[in-house]
């Protein structure tokens, strides 16, 4: 059952992405000729308000076909000169339309994080399970519940890491111990470690206060509207940083391509979610991933098309159509290669 739900979730995220392009295009006055989930032969379709909505054979993505977009580079014709043609829109409108898919993916993730925080989120409570010398010297004890740091209220252990990471100098901790409220002060330690690439020149520094959570102390925390929005933005930012860092490590070679995962791995991970909230959290993270990947400057992706708009309309540099077509085919080939590499890795892990 969860496997079916996982497949539907993946299809829904693709739908969200294409819906972004569709809605922004309509807002900008561009006619959308086709809205398809999947590629290849159309399995079924219907027409509504001048747009053909289709479900296609290969469910590994989707697309929207905008009036005048394919013919933008050709000589003037009736379709290009129409008011509802993509070719007639300003550079800003074109960029906004191309960015619309990623924008909706990001918006979906933020909304998921927001409503989960608003409805109640299962979290590790800010209760100390273990501590080292730094925390002991500051007067902290096992079982202390941290209520606030530098007068910022704490609801979960994850928030402690966030506040410590951006804090400067000495921290003021308000804790609860044996039904008493106490105030403790300590200065975080700076810890330096070599990155996963094992490159001695690549050192990562982070702050610690020397405490670990009590893994048995779980609770459900509900946030106010403002707090929920802050939590949503915080989680969204964490997702962006994690994905961008993973891409950086893949590009620089500090991470193995064996870590790549394909559709089978993604669906498998989604299907292991043991609750609706876990499924939504994973779906939100995957939505951020989908948005970022589509913004990469790889031919056939939104990012490369946005780059093309910038170079053509702002710097007045345009590649000849044959070269554009060749780059597009190369981009498609690269994406197919990455897809099959991810699929190979998934199958290797299963066998």
Total of DSSP H or I helical runs spanning 4+ residues = 10
Mean pLDDT: 78
- Sequence stretches where pLDDT stays below 50 over 5 or more residues: none
Give the end-to-end Cα distance, rounded to a whole number of Å: 23 Å
Q: Helical percent range?
A: 40-55%
What is the structural class? alpha+beta
Order of strands, main sheet, comes to: 6-5-7-8
Radius of gyration: 25 Å
Q: What portion of residues belong to β-strands?
A: 15-25%
H and E string:
HEEHHEEHEEHEEEEEEHHHHH
The biggest beta sheet is recorded as:
4 strands, antiparallel
Question: How many individual domains?
Answer: 2
**Count of DSSP strands:** 12
Shape: elongated
Molecular structure report:
- By secondary structure, the protein is α+β, with helices and mostly antiparallel strands.
- The chain folds into two domains: 147 residues, no CATH class; 100 residues, PDZ domain (Pdz3 Domain, Roll), CATH 2.30.42.10.
- Helices cover 49% and strands 23% of the residues.
- The strands form five sheets. Strands 6-5-7-8 form a four-stranded antiparallel β-sheet. A two-stranded antiparallel ribbon has the order 1-2. Strands 3-12 form a two-stranded antiparallel ribbon.
- Helix 1 packs across helix 3 and helix 3 runs antiparallel to helix 9.
- 25% of the residues are buried.
